[in-house]
């Protein structure tokens, strides 16, 4: 691999290894690429007029829109012709959800018909007529275009805004940063042979953080393929079995539209300028920015690739926001925390992030997770230390349900269809260390409020990544940010600072536990006689992480008595429906625990009652009153090392529901967002402080 890349020589780097004086000249224009900013629909399109739209206002500020009646192929054409990476699906002018190029590519891989209507696709291809599950929410699906920067506008326009703000105060990171600090190293890029099929290329692209793959002929580097190139193939209805280079060579060769050469030590400002100039030099404006192929300064060896998304993700949002989105005009409740001294970097520094290696087994990873007490671990390449993905508790649950061998390597799991945080989704789940808690909450709530259609992978919604410092080898270090970290930060860490500021407002009271919980009727419920395996299957089928365990009252009393004898405050018997006691809960953490103590093979023969007795935790030991503040709930979770609490009503001891750390994040994010129109600036913080006091 290294020898091959070193032979790229003159095909990649300009003579002398310096940055081209005119970056635009490095890009040739291919007449057969016909997408334009105002491209018409194909002649045989099945999309009704008006189903796809991108107004002049949308062109400068927001994403494209389409109706549920648009076909996937025409939506893909819209994304290509405008340069957007996502579109909002609107039914009768009401926002339904977002759909991105990643969604379409996943559908392409799974054989989704090109003429399928977007509305039918969002309903999971089912025949049952159901309304879209918006829940009154305003955000869309988890992917690169609905999170991060893409919803502010076209990448090309955002980069231009960034260039206009060169030298702006507070832009020190950008002024000092180079391409090498944020690019994807070449040794972590997927490499495809030019004889591979389009399907094989697509699978490789979906594993790439930068959404790109190198193409070789076994002797030399031929080009670079991007996700947008395969999206074009979908529009052209190319069969996945066809040879990729036969159809994509014109778009992907080293002198085509997809890439541009630059030195790895080039400043980000110059890299952004090179992207824009290369894009504008084309005779046909397709709105797409090229990837940058980074070569060794003064040499000719390829060392990495920088995508437009990676560039934008590394820059504070205020530096590429359009003029109407300047921070001083965004003083809403969610902007309050912009001024807070506690950042996500401060939050993740308070707890260690567990790591494991891609060549370890799933069983070994469970041991590491169980010892760390965390719900996920960052997966590193064993040879170069590059981040390959994140392994979560939900991965372990899915592996159990799939009957996966615990000797399966983590690397193999991350390359499969059921991985929750594979490498290709990490860029959109990554925040800069200086990001505020409100931004983190908004990203996580966005993931939690939507679900992938049946047959598509359900990506993680309980974790984000925080980009840290660079080491001596220019490798970036990352840390995990969990839902509990954000919940605790929003409800307790901010409170002392807000109180000290003496800020006041008329926002009303934030939600309490009973308003944020999942009601008992909607929670998964098992009996104490059910097996542990039954509970795990129920969790996987329901896409929930916690199940209530109901049993006879005498068994519940035995648990309370056992907890009292072990020194834990046993408390009262918790009640469910008439004559039934709530004996405890089973969560995804129990899957990890079962594997780590080598009991996974016995789950089908272990009753939930026996499991709870073995854990020695009283249901009262993980409960909270329904009228408690969300701050009290978050603090109780941290103190008890859990992510779920039973919600108990009054003196009756009746279990009303269950609340998770993610429920707290979603509730706080929704509360702040709904009140964004009620105030300006930081004048309304006092009510937040008073309501969050323990």
Automatic annotation (TrEMBL):
Q: Which PROSITE patterns match?
A: CBS (PS51371)
Sorted keywords for this record are: CBS domain
Query: What PANTHER family does the record point to?
Result: CBS DOMAIN-CONTAINING PROTEIN, CBS DOMAIN-CONTAINING PROTEIN CBSX3, MITOCHONDRIAL
Q: Which InterPro entries match?
A: CBS_dom (IPR000644), CBS_dom_sf (IPR046342), Diverse_CBS-Domain (IPR051257)
Report the residue ranges that make up the CBS domain in this protein.
349-408, 617-674
List the taxonomic lineage.
Answer: Eukaryota, Sar, Alveolata, Dinophyceae, Suessiales
Question: Which Gene3D superfamilies does UniProt cross-reference here?
Answer: CBS-domain (3.10.580.10)
**Species for this entry:** Polarella glacialis
The protein's name in its UniProt record: CBS domain-containing protein
Q: Which region ranges are annotated with the description Disordered? A: 1-24, 44-65
């Amino acid at each position: 691999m290294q020898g091959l890349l070193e032979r790229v020589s003159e095909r990649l780097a300009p003579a002398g290894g310096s940055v081209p004086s005119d970056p635009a000249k490095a890009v040739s224009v291919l007449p057969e690429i016909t997408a334009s900013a105002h491209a018409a629909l194909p002649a045989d399109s099945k999309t009704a007029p008006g189903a796809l739209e991108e107004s002049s206002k949308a062109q400068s500020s927001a994403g494209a829109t389409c109706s549920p009646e648009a076909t996937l192929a025409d939506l893909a054409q819209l994304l290509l012709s405008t340069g957007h990476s996502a579109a909002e699906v609107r039914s009768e002018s009401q926002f339904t959800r977002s759909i991105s190029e990643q969604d379409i590519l996943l559908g392409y891989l799974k054989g989704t018909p090109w003429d399928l209507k977007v509305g039918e696709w969002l309903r999971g291809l089912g025949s049952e007529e159901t309304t879209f599950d918006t829940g009154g929410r305003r955000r869309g699906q988890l992917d690169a275009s609905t999170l991060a920067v893409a919803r502010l506008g076209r990448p090309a326009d955002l980069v231009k805004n960034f260039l206009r703000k060169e030298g702006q105060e507070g832009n020190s990171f950008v002024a000092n940063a180079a391409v090498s600090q944020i690019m994807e190293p070449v040794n972590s890029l997927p490499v495809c042979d030019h004889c591979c099929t389009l399907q094989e290329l697509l699978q490789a692209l979906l594993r790439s953080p930068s959404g790109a793959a190198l193409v070789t002929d076994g002797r030399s580097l031929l080009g670079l393929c991007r996700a947008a190139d395969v999206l074009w193939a979908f529009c052209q209805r190319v069969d996945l079995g066809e040879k990729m280079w036969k159809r994509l060579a014109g778009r992907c060769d080293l002198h085509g539209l997809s890439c541009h050469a630059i030195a790895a030590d080039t400043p980000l400002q110059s890299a952004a300028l090179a992207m824009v100039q290369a894009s504008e030099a084309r005779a046909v404006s397709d709105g797409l920015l090229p990837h940058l192929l980074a070569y060794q300064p003064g040499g000719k060896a390829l060392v990495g690739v920088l995508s437009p998304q990676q560039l934008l993700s590394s820059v504070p949002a205020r530096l590429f926001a359009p003029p109407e989105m300047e921070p001083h005009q965004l003083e809403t409740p969610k902007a309050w925390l912009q001024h807070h001294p506690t950042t996500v970097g401060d939050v993740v520094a308070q707890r260690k992030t567990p790591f494991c290696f891609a060549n370890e087994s799933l069983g070994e990873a469970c041991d590491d997770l169980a010892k760390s007490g965390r719900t996920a671990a960052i997966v590193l390449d064993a040879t170069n230390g590059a981040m390959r993905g994140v392994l979560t508790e939900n991965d372990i649950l899915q592996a159990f349900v799939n009957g996966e061998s615990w000797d399966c390597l983590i690397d193999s799991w991350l390359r499969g269809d059921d991985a929750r945080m594979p490498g290709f989704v990490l860029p959109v789940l990554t925040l800069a260390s200086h990001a505020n808690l409100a931004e983190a909450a908004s990203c996580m709530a966005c993931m939690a409020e939507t679900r992938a259609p049946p047959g598509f992978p359900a990506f993680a919604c309980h974790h984000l990544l925080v980009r840290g410092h660079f080491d001596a080898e220019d490798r970036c270090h990352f840390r995990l940010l969990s839902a509990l970290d954000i919940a605790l930060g929003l409800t307790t860490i901010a409170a002392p600072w807000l109180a000290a500021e003496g800020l006041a407002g008329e926002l009303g009271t934030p939600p309490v536990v009973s308003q944020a919980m999942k009601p008992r009727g909607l929670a998964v419920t098992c009996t104490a006689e059910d097996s542990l395996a039954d509970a795990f299957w129920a969790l996987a089928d329901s896409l929930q992480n916690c199940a209530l365990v109901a049993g006879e009252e005498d068994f519940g009393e035995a648990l309370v008595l056992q907890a009292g004898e072990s020194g834990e405050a046993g408390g009262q018997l918790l009640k469910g429906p008439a004559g039934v006691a709530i004996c405890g809960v089973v969560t995804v953490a129990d899957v990890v625990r079962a594997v780590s103590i080598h009991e996974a093979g016995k789950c089908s023969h272990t009753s939930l009652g026996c499991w709870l007795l073995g854990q020695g935790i009283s249901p009262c030991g993980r409960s909270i009153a329904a009228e408690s503040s969300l701050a009290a709930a978050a603090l109780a979770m941290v103190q008890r090392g859990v992510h779920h609490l039973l919600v108990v009503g009054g003196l009756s001891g009746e279990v009303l529901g269950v609340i998770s750390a993610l429920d707290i994040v979603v509730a706080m994010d929704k509360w702040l967002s709904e009140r964004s129109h009620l105030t300006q600036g930081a004048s309304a913080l006092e009510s937040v402080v008073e309501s969050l006091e323990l």
